[in-house]
Amino acid sequence: MAQRRLTFVLYRQGKCVENRAGRYHFRRMRNLGILLGLAFAASAHASVTLVPLDSRPATGQYPQMLGHIAGERVSLPPTGLLGRFTEPGKAEAVCQWLLAQDLSESSSLVISADMLAYGGLVESRLPTVSVQKAVERIGTIRKVRAKWPGKRLFVFSSLMRTAPTATSTTASWRMHLARYVELKERYQRTGERFLLGQMESHRSKFSSRELEKYYAARKRNMEVHKALIKMVKEGAIDYLVIGVDDAQKYGPHVPETKELRSLIDSLSIGGLVYICDGVDQLGNLLVSRALLREAKWMPQVYVRFSDPAQANKAAPYETRPLAITVRDQIIVSGARPAASPDSADFQLYLNAPGADAQHLDFFALTMLGSPTKTLMVAVADVNFSKDGAADPQLVSKIWKSQNIESLLAFAGWNTASNTIGTSVPHANLYLLSKRLNADAFTREKAHREFLFHRFINDYAFHRFVRPAAYRMADSDPSGSREELSASSWKKLEQWVARNTEGLIVRYFEDLFRGEKFWAQEMQYEVMGISGIEVSLPWPRVFEARIAFDFVVSPVVGLGSGGL
Length: 563
Description:
The chain is of the alpha/beta class. The chain has three domains: 1-44 and 464-563, no CATH class; 46-296, Rossmann fold, CATH 3.40.50; 302-413, no CATH class. The chain is built from 16 helices and 18 strands. The chain has helices at residues 57-69, 91-100, 113-117, 131-138, 140-147, 174-190, 195-203, 208-234, 253-266, 282-295, 322-332, 357-368, 392-400, 416-435, 440-474, 486-511; strands at residues 4-12, 14-18, 24-28, 34-42, 48-51, 74-75, 108-112, 152-159, 239-244, 273-277, 300-305, 336-337, 346-351, 377-381, 407-411, 516-519, 522-535, 545-554.
């Protein structure tokens, strides 16, 4: 792990108060108290260098926060190089940035091939970049290998999803195209003639030009995937993950996946290339894998389902049964499934879609029943509500248990793979930090911040703020909920920031203010929350960038030798 130097960190004390209108705000006290905490500052070099999929928080901010839990810095290219929604990232500049990095104290690199080849995920769905240019750009990976032969290179790429990107331009026809290609692949596989009428109905809703562009992008992407697989064979890449993006049971991704698996088998590199569902979480998973591999530790994870009968069903936007999905995410993270709870380092409680009230009650009771705070439990909530938020019933049970801080991890956002691929790395890296006896103050503070971040982002924002923001976006004649106009973006960003900040401070008061934790031989108390920032990183309200810091103070009179 990266070397560290001992330093003292000064914190400014603040106080969170409620005004008569019921709104909360953060106010510095006139007599600023100096709170002394013990921490180890990261060295000037990052332990992991990450080229993210794009500029969304889930692909860059989350891996950085997860690395911080383990006491490691995850370095990213400047945000200005990563693009924004339909504006592609500056792929050539990112390649140059990567080659210019001093990796002497880094152990691993995690690289999005989509960013290098095309400028990000959204641009990968368009045929703008030629196959020759895309393959040339991913050749940067070979140059990194030649320059830094001792570094581990973990690379990921996306197998293109069925539907084109949701924008104001594609809103009227994109799902017709998606349904058409899905039905077409099903017909080719099954010969069910009743599908022909449905196919023709959808086909009439979009132009031949859009269909040509769609298949051209898929064809080019397949050539890039094959080039990456061959780079694994030649030793330029240590581990490659191909994520199947937002997939269905039928669609062009099915024969594509089969073709890629055949190539992998023919090259005898099955253990070095992994194909799984989901893309947005792959940065989290591979940062986890990189740090676990460096430490030569492979945690064992035992999975419990809220309803075991749901394990054999595929979740929405997934191609395989949920039991396979969770297995895949665990393996890519660098961990392994455990055969029993007794052999596990922690248990992953998975709240699956379709669980009835009785199953959920028993699930929550076994998950949260112990008040001892010694449970090794992570939670992946994939039973999303209609508004896309984590399950309100489960969240309520967790909050009422007053045992949140005993959780190793919590996540519940977007898809099953995204969720599991966030919760498992969180638990992995928290336990890794404890196993290595790394800086306990950094670990415990960063762990609680990420845990709180998940409840705010995965539940509060999606449950209360996003639905209302969508309604506001729908009333704007110059834009749409898929892609906001410039004026609507600024207006909605201010509204989203104001309302999300209110939820952050309210939930902090309810859940984390006053919580105490031990680090080394010193006890600390969470005193306040500062530096709250909320923004819309892309011109839409599908996600928000949320940042804050917990203000933490030593508990006076307790601890011996903590400094």
